[in-house]
Prior knowledge:
Number of helices: 3
Strand order of the largest sheet: 1-2-3
Radius of gyration: 17 Å
Number of strands: 3
Structural class: alpha+beta
Shape: elongated
Distance between the termini: 43 Å
Helix content: 40-55%
Number of domains: 1
Largest sheet: 3 strands, antiparallel
Order of helices and strands: EEEHHH
Oligomer: single chain
Amino acid sequence: MLASEGAVARWYAVVRFDPERRAVLTIQLFDGSNGGARVAESELEFKERDSELERWASAGVVVAALGEENRLFQAALAAERLGQRDQAELSLNRLLSKYPSSPLAPEARRALSRILGAAPVP
């Protein structure tokens, strides 16, 4: 069983294999709510020598990281909505320090600038 009965997924990942580009896996993270907007995307490129098991294990690691990145970002936005600027700033700084190359990093920097009252960082 992957989830408890009645559990609601906050996000889900889609991993795509393109037979034309055998060495590439594309991972997309979607919001689990109705409509399921894409919140992040990452591409993994492998060497020919990498086994299928290594490729899928790497995809699992990336999915877990994207989930954590999204959790930190959503926590920051929720804290901001509640007026908890210190908590929002803490979550965004954790995201940016732990995952500086995250696909969510540009939006996290803009949110941090907004929370700190500065001009947005590109």
